Amino acid sequence: MNLLGIGIDVVEVERIDSSIDEFGDKFLQRIFTKAEQDYCQSQKRSSIHFAARFAAKEAIAKAFGTGIGKEISWLDMEILRQPSGEPKVLMSGEGKKYAEKMKVADIKISLTHAEHYAAANAVVLTKG
C-alpha cells in the first residue's frame, strides 16, 4: 500500500454545542448520518462525540487533499465504532466514487476528546 495523504483536525466542543443549539436537527442532518447521530445521542455527553466525528471528517478530507466539497461531502463519510471500540470509516455516494478513482485501499483514523476539545487524524492508503 502507498500513502495518499494524512490529515488532522481539532474542534472546540463548544462550537459543536453552539451549532446544535442554534440549528438543531438541520445541522445534525447536514453533517452526520443517522447511524452517527444515533451513536452520539446514546452517549452521556453527545457533543463530545459529535465533535470527534466532525474532526474526523475534516481530517479525512484533508488527507484526500480535497477539503469538504465536490469530491467528498459531509455525508459521504461515516464514522462508525467497531465492537472492539476502534473507529471505522465507511465511504458512500460521490465520496466512495472518488475513493475508488483514487484507488483507496483503506482509511485509518484515530479520535480523541477531552472536556473542551476533540481531535482526529486520518491516513488514506492506496493500493500498491
Key words describing this protein structure:
two-stranded antiparallel sheet, alpha+beta, 128 residues, 5 strands, 5 helices, single chain, three-stranded antiparallel β-sheet
Written overview of the protein:
This protein has helices at residues 13-23, 25-31, 34-41, 46-64, 93-101, and strands at 2-12, 77-81, 87-91, 104-113, 117-126. By secondary structure, the chain is of the alpha+beta class. Strands 1-5-4 form a 3-stranded antiparallel sheet. The protein has a two-stranded antiparallel ribbon with strand order 2-3. Helix 3 (34-41) packs antiparallel against helix 4. The longest helix has 19 residues, at 46-64. The model has no long low-confidence stretch (mean pLDDT 97).
Give the topology, please.
Layout: E1 2-12, H1 13-23, H2 25-31, H3 34-41, H4 46-64, E2 77-81, E3 87-91, H5 93-101, E4 104-113, E5 117-126
Antiparallel strand pairs: 1-5, 2-3, 4-5
Helix pairs in contact: 1-4, 3-4
Quick structural gist:
With 128 residues, the protein is α+β, with helices and mostly antiparallel strands.
Distance between the termini: 4 Å
Q: How many helix segments?
A: 5
Number of strands: 5
Quote the average pLDDT: 97
| Beta-strand proportion | 25-35%
Q: Which stretches of 5+ consecutive residues score pLDDT under 50?
A: none
The residue fraction in helices comes out at 40-55%
Q: Look at the helices and sheets and give the structural class.
A: alpha+beta
Largest sheet: 3 strands, antiparallel
Instruction: Give Rg in angstroms.
Output: 14 Å
